[in-house]
Amino acid sequence: MTCLSLFSASTFAQITIKGQVIEQGSDLPVPFASVYIEGTTTGTLTSNNGYFSITIDDYNGKTIVAKFTGYEHTTKKLTKANFNKKLILKLKESSTQLDEVVIKSKKWENPAWAILRSIQKNKNDNNIRDLKSYEYDSYTKSDIWVGNVNENFKNKKVVSDILDSFENFEPILDANGQPVIPIFSSEVISKIYYIKNPDAKTEVIEKSRIRSVGPDDSEMISQMVGSSFIDFNIYQNSFNFLAKQFISPITSEWRNYYDYTLQPKKVNIDGIDCHKIDFEPRREEDLAFTGTMYIADSANHFALIKWDAKLNKEANINFVDSVHLNQVYTPIQKSDGKTGWLPKKQDFIISIGKIADKWAKVKLNIKIHNNNFIIDQPKPRNFYDQPVQMDSDALIDVNDEKFWTEQRPTQLTDKEQQVFSMIDSAEATPRVKLIASVGDMVTSGHKRFGPIELGPIPFLYANNSVEEHRFQLGFQTNNQFSKKWSFNGFAAYGTKDKEWKYGGQARYIINRKHWSLIGASYYNDLRRVSVNQANFNSRPLFLAALRWGDMRYPYMEKNAAVWYEKDITRGFNVLTKISHRILDPLFPYKQDGDFENNEPTYDRLVGTEVYVKMTYGLGHRYVTNRANYRKLVAQDNRPRISLDYTAGIPNVLGSNYSYQQVRVGLDQKAQIGKFGTSTYVLQGGLIFTEAPFPFLAMPFGNNVPLLYNRYAFNLMDLGEFVGDKWTSLQMIHRFDGNVLNRIPLIKKLGWRMVGICNIMYGDLSNKNANQAARPQLLEGEQYDPNREAKALDPSLPYVEVGTGVENIFKFLRVYTIWRTTYHTPTSNNFGVYFAFGLSF
């Protein structure tokens, strides 16, 4: 009886305080305001209508507090006269505007924080990456539309032609009643496989159908529109998106980046009770999201069940008007009794805003549905060698509607089903054909004629000191010709030297899934010393530029080679090559000693060489294009390393030289959180033995005026320095707007600051200094020792540093570079360079 009395007394001593928080002056409710009892941890957040309810043991001496960012806090003493009435707490707008306002009491904290801490505590168990292995079926539907079509845009001839081609279809309209124009649509059926330690993920494309008014490379595009390219794991602190590093709303540093609001009522999703938490960035310049996430309660270990987010509009991202991400997870029972969570559904919508008044908007919509989950049944490790694989019949019978009807998780509407036909109709119009053809030439560098393609276009013409006007025509085959064999070749003619140059290559792909091939080539062509030392990341456009200008140290080369290339395991590629070379220097050159009586000689070099190169880079992702070459399309923070060895073998097929060389390279695109992105290339090399002058190392200078090349030393002439051991670092750091974003006027322009640093150490040993080599004399030119290649002082590096601004008018980049060492009367010690490129 006594116990019952005590229990009753305790129960009836509980007091519930109810009320509403409103804005002073307007009397509008203030949702999600913090309301708590001063000096205690008892508190809550107001509802959407500003209402709150707090239960306490006693009101004596208690004060209730209401706070909200941007308002002055208000307090009210609790008395017997007011505790049983509806309390009205009025918040007055703060007269001081701060960049960031954080209001705290001594003991009170945001109720969402406790849940965020529980998420971190259980993150490893809930993370999909904690599974030993998994696999599932995936269906991906991708669509690209042109919307918000205004009258100016409609009047463009190509747009008018497309709209006319849609006359026999039911019109597809946007929310404003304006027509939308489908320009790309795809459906992909695939299987996703993952294995842990080391992490490897593979997508096998089983069937793919694509319609596009753009470039025609169904094989490469099919590998890029599967679900593995749209796979955001927000259990990671950050993830790559639009080539930038975005901060997860459940990052381990969540309090530094996000503000959270816990909704008072739980939400049931698929039978799981979830906490609903809204989040938004604390700083508008951060690459973060605004949205809502649903976190399972303690019964399901605070797992992420669903999140729905939009990109912060203030983020410095080109062209993007809006981004919407949505993921839903499903539980999978693990062998240890714990639960893993795999993505059941993923939606991704990005809208490209108006670039100019006469332009419309482009929207990309990707919907992914996954099912048939299997865990902890890994395949053999070599199964995961390639990130993306294509079944041999993936592009065969792709228009079988019965197949797609059976495979789709949800059926398409009538309008969605007609999209493929609409794109076909638009693609058949003459103007669209022309634009698509030009676009294909720009992206591929070749003009396609069925199974044969002419090009590369950047090599069609060049002007240099040896040939003057060089004209070249080349070809290559594509996968319409064969999926196993590929051929290419070229013929070129110089109007000054009146010499024909030519070459050809054949490749046979032995295995695509485990990437192995053999090849053979022969060419008779003009070369220049230093190109052999080209950075392994050099782009074709820059290599074409090496055909231009003062060659300085040119030579003619006949080269026959055979090689074998194979991926030993995921990310680890080995190339072995044997070649026979005949070099005829076009510059005065004597292999041993000085010229006799100062009379130039031109020693022919004949050699047989063995070359082995190993490359390892787990974070670099390749796909195969229609020409049966692999193309790098994505990379993460992990570095790539390369090691190669070259040996010239004497007395084989008339060889008159021998040498050995080792080179190593390391490159990485490193995301440094909110501080930006550093991209660097670190290289080094050593020639152990005596080596002919044409095989010595010459740093890669930039021979193109005004145009910046990040793989070159831009203020160094090609052939300015020579050595047989060297180390170099080339780095560019992009601050991603974190500097210029803080200047109001510049922030509106969207400019981005970069820093540049290029350093090289080198030396030329005595054993390789005993050769006579002079630059080729230009017509009418006298010998000038300043044009000779010099050895670097091993104690003094060549250094150039710079800064620049990118994203001017969304595409222009301007860099200022200073050369800080090796100043000479003829050296270029300062330069302003330009580059062009579109990026988000």
TrEMBL record:
Pfam families: CarbopepD_reg_2, DUF5686
Superkingdom of this protein's organism: Bacteria
InterPro entries named in the record: CarboxyPept-like_regulatory (IPR008969), DUF5686 (IPR043741)
Protein name: Collagen-binding protein
Organism: Flammeovirga pacifica
